[in-house]
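4.2 Preliminary Data

To establish feasibility before requesting continued support, the project team ran the inverse folding procedure on a target of 500 residues. The structure was first converted into the token representation described in Section 3, and no sequence information of any kind was made available to the design step. The complete token record follows.
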């Protein structure tokens, strides 16, 4: 059994409030928190690890990102979702090796740890052809660096271009024929792959685990959604699904279902606990009521929603309805970073644009709770993650209190949320293992990995550029569809998500 004790720590545990407890020793044994006691009450058990002058907090939980986008970092701007997403899922998939997949996964994993993230959820696109070795390479990257990860090979049985209205009218016949002719792994095979992998990588047992990741209602048939739901229920897997991120998707919902996507999922029996509704920006009060009644969570990605112009979800209304809210970054293709500190900060800032009553603004403590306890509950892991308490897994971050962000020290959580950049991060512990020590990652040669990522990107960059040029041929049709949807009315009950 591995045992060590963090000594002389200043500790914050979100459910107990944000006021730090007095100096404590935190004993860690076999990957879990064994005991928390006032410093000096007993001699440290196992190896003593000096945490004097350190703020110990639960590690952040990044509830949503896409590792397959990491080679696209920095390539796009001023594009709404329905135009941008074609570039990261091109007509002709970028050919990559398992080694290149391993390296691109490390892009996000390194930045995640360096921004205080101990758990990351990876919605990993495996279309059009599932290559098991690529999924294994991503899993191995997370194993090697030491982060906790939930990986969901993306599940859908409708091609992405079929998830929009007016496709038959606006796409040229030859383009439709070409898109329809793409040979893809049958959806049932991808579903079976996830089922098989979950037996060896179940979230209750494995640090690097599998979850169910149906892409979105409009990209899945009702029968396929029922199959995914049945699998997740049978195997007790968390579920993540994108729902009504944009105004265009609100139009799509009315055209496809005659109701919101939330109402449609509810009618299918899909909304349940340990199910994350990613984005949920364009919602009505009735949608909020349905989500709250189901026990599902909403997964807020403020920076991605801002950069893509998607809008601002009504977080206060959701919290008041009793909905659990978690936080995520989304993929590097859209927002260019996996820095969860930025997501937490943005949540506490941009949500203040909703309403003139300061008492209802989201504050730093609520944003921090969404990134810790909220993330754990969304994944069905509230009994294991997101807190510092005996019996919880030891997923912890230690911040230097002599760093300028915390000097002078008045409110550690506010200063962490509003003032910290990651420069103060000293240690990161995941599953009881120190994966960052004195600011250095302990399980990988970071310099060598970063150099190899650059080399891998250089190898595939010509293919990226060629794929982007190919996508340009589709843009006129997509822009016409976006314009037509913009001209359509949406449910007047939908809460405002953008400034006029």
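Position-by-position output of the design step:
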């Amino acid at each position: 059994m591995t045992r060590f004790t963090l000594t002389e720590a200043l500790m914050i545990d979100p459910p107990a409030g944000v006021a730090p407890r007095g100096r404590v020793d935190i004993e860690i044994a076999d990957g879990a928190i064994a005991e928390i006691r006032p410093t000096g009450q007993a001699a440290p058990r196992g190896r003593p690890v000096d945490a004097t002058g350190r703020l110990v907090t639960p590690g952040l939980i990044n509830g949503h990102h896409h590792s397959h986008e990491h080679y696209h970092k920095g390539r796009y701007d001023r594009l709404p979702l329905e135009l941008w997403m074609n570039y990261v899922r091109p007509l002709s998939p970028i050919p990559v090796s398992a080694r290149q997949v391993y390296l691109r996964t490390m892009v996000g994993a390194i930045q995640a740890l360096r921004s205080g993230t101990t758990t990351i959820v990876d919605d990993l696109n495996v279309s059009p052809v599932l290559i098991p070795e690529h999924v294994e390479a991503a899993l191995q990257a997370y194993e090697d660096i030491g982060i906790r990860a939930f990986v969901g090979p993306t599940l859908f049985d409708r091609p992405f271009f079929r998830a929009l209205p007016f496709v038959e009218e606006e796409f040229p016949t030859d383009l439709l024929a070409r898109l329809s002719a793409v040979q893809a792994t049958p959806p049932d095979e991808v579903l079976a792959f996830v089922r098989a992998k979950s037996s060896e990588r179940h979230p209750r047992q494995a640090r690097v685990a599998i979850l169910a990741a149906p892409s979105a209602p409009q990209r899945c048939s009702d029968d396929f959604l029922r199959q995914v739901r049945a699998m997740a229920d049978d195997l007790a897997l968390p579920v993540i699904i994108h729902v009504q991120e944009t105004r265009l998707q609100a139009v799509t919902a009315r055209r496809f279902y005659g109701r919101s996507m939330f109402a449609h999922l509810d009618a299918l029996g899909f909304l349940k606990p340990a199910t994350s509704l990613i984005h949920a920006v364009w919602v009505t009060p009735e949608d909020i009521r349905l989500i709250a009644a189901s026990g599902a969570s909403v997964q807020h990605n403020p920076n991605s929603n801002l950069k893509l112009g998607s809008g601002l979800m009504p977080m206060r209304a959701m919290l008041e309805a009793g909905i659990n809210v978690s936080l995520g970054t989304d993929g590097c293709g859209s927002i260019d970073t996996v820095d969860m500190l930025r997501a937490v900060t943005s949540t506490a800032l941009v949500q203040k644009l909703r309403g003139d009553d300061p008492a209802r603004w989201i504050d730093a403590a609520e944003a921090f709770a969404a990134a810790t306890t909220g993330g754990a509950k969304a994944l069905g892991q509230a009994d294991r993650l997101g807190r510092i308490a005996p019996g919880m897994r030891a997923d912890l971050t230690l911040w230097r209190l002599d760093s300028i962000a915390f000097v002078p020290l008045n409110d550690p959580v506010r200063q962490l949320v509003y003032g910290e950049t990651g420069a103060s991060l000293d240690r990161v512990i995941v599953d009881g293992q120190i994966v960052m020590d004195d600011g250095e990652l302990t399980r990988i040669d970071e310099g060598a990995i970063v150099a190899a990522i650059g080399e891998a990107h250089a190898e595939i960059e010509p293919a990226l550029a060629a794929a982007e040029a190919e996508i340009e041929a589709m843009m006129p049709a997509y822009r016409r569809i976006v314009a037509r949807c913009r001209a359509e009315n949406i449910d007047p009950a939908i809460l405002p998500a953008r400034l006029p």
